[in-house]
Amino acid sequence: MVEKRKPIPVEEAISRVMKYKTIADKEVITIEESFGRFLAEDLIASHDVPAFNRSPYDGFAIRAEDTKEASANHPVRFEVVGEIGAGYVFEEEVMPFQAVRIMTGAQIPQGCDAVVMLELVKELEGQERPAILIKRLFKKGDNISYQGEDTEKGTVLVKKGTQINPGIVALLATFGYSKVSVAKRPVIGVIATGTELLNVDEPLAPGKIRNSNAYMIMAQIDRAGGQAKYYGKLNDDFEACLTATKQALSEVDMLITTGGVSVGDYDYVPVILKELGAEVLFNKVAMRPGSVTTVANLGEKMIYGLSGNPSACYVGFELFVRPVLRQALFNNFPHLRKTKATLGVDFTKPNPFMRLVRSRVDYVDGQLVASPSGVDKSGIVSSLGGADCLMLLPGGTRGYEKGMDIDILLLEDTQGSEWPWSNIVASYK
Amino acid sequence: MVEKRKPIPVEEAISRVMKYKTIADKEVITIEESFGRFLAEDLIASHDVPAFNRSPYDGFAIRAEDTKEASANHPVRFEVVGEIGAGYVFEEEVMPFQAVRIMTGAQIPQGCDAVVMLELVKELEGQERPAILIKRLFKKGDNISYQGEDTEKGTVLVKKGTQINPGIVALLATFGYSKVSVAKRPVIGVIATGTELLNVDEPLAPGKIRNSNAYMIMAQIDRAGGQAKYYGKLNDDFEACLTATKQALSEVDMLITTGGVSVGDYDYVPVILKELGAEVLFNKVAMRPGSVTTVANLGEKMIYGLSGNPSACYVGFELFVRPVLRQALFNNFPHLRKTKATLGVDFTKPNPFMRLVRSRVDYVDGQLVASPSGVDKSGIVSSLGGADCLMLLPGGTRGYEKGMDIDILLLEDTQGSEWPWSNIVASYK
After folding, report:
1. Which domain holds residue A179?
2. In this structure, are residues B338 and B408 in contact, taking their beta carbons and an 8 Å threshold?
3. pLDDT tens digits for B131-159?
4. A·B CB contacts under 8 A
5. Where is the secretion signal located (chains A, B) (predicted)?
């Protein structure tokens, strides 16, 4: 008997998944390990920046009022009473018509309120004590970086849940965070099923294909910020699959299986979920590829039955696993970033289900243009390599034409979207 | 005495750097380690895909000609002579009006040339031998994925030098690459100089700042695909700096120092380069920030004297280090990806030098719009955290207005540009 499944819209499927929150955990790591991780706490300025009034240039610190009368014809003479390298402090008070040689970044000495760049002074030679001439007026504050002018102590610089990029690493260092509190990477179990699967290092055999989904998903988990735990590939054997699923569930934060989700005689996922007492959120989605995707929940753990078909598996991960994973990383923009783009080719054939086409974005005069990265047939892997976005072509009775406005999801973007699934349309410009 | 330096245009500076090729090396790693690395060889299809004619659906394999007379009113009866799970092969020849139950992905049995989806047949019950009814015509080839229809054996699927994404991992697995030849990650030494620098875990002190550049650069190296080796921070001491530089140069593929590149009394980079006998490609670039960037070459090694100023240091890395590093990863698009965008704010103040403004890209109705990610003052780190692109505002005597077309460089893009530096302009739409 063929089980009848009712497909639900993609938006509805994601909504159901997002009702479940996987536990988010913290851990403390060193700043050297922090690149690419997700902040578990707001990054707060622990002091003013600059922390003191400082010189942005090499030059001479002076009292601006002493240059009142200075001009090209009437240069004013300053006695150089000291020198401050960056990192040193000039301890004395600077008096009228005195100057202190100051290096980039050094603290402005007491009494001074302007810096004259090195190129703008004439150093006098053959004097008893070093001296310079200044030929123009300087105002109070000229060439001074004031304490706190960039950032005041206590400012939230980067929000919790943000992925740490090189700029954020610089901020962590500046504010003394040699240890960083980051989200623990959720552990996601991966089980591939299918008697047709060969290991990657096995030679091809009649009727068999190599297991590519497990490796692909492990890379997707890595890209999304999680940690993959591979439980190997299993034949279509109910007892073996059930045992492996139970074992994995006891060790991971979420579990992904690929294959066995269809309505064929060897598709054991539905029975296993029943046996486990998991709540099935849906087992059919109105999308191509990936319509037979199944998602279930057992206590605090999500169980994903992704299709054995590589493209469907890929899309299923990005739509349903990624946002849950990102939420567990404290991220507030857990979905793939959705944006508008111009459709680069015709899609004449209508499809009742929403299509997610693996595509590549081009930037043409500042405009995003999306075209398929390969032949879009769901059994096909070659288009996956070049894809950096997914087109969203709403289901319906008509096709789409080159030049139309469509929605796309960016696969390699670092920012993400809060809730990208409202109002997906394609329209004429 | 102030040394006179002649600034050269940014494009010219990059041209000079790109004339030097750092040695690119290969290594073999496992597929599990391959995500994010760069292919050292073209990825070639080692067999046809599909490798055999297969069924994309669960259903029954039949001979299409036997359905010639089939209709709703005159269903045709087929005897079910066997069953093929995915991964199994049906050894016998299928005869007229025989059908074989076939699972998704399984090999089409000899004699069959069409698959009827499970949902479209009526299974007859209570028969001596299993049988089905088919109620419509099927054509030869219906629901068959033909051998090689996705990809023919020998096809170059992904070019050498491409960064491995999850889709490429799937391809590697499909074609049996359990070991992958990838570019060795060049080792890049990092030395921070400046007596004003504190370690990240030291408390703030008068006149001092924490060393943020070294950590930032190490993350930039990581993002670009290299491997950082940190030689610590040094005070402005000529002998110590020279010794560390020599030591580092004997151990790394390229070397980056930060600080000490200006014309101040403690700026030892020029003297050290002279002492080493390095060829200085340039020591001043007509850009803000980062005008005092110095790049030199010694044999097969590049030596970068980046500014001690965080923003200048960041930009100097992305413009001058990244492309050389990416070339050493066999990558043909080593520069940051350049594209057009709409300027999101006014920049009224003209600057004789080209400005590179740390910015954030927004997608507004499929159009890229770039706005500064923070206050753009070169001493300021807080804007680095939110930057995902650099605006290019050509030097000149006029400012720029919101809504103009400008060029930007994408920091987080995975694709890159071949030679992004021709014809940088800003114009009214």
Report:
1. 28-49+150-183
2. yes
3. 999 999 999 999 999 999 888 899 999 99
4. 355
5. none
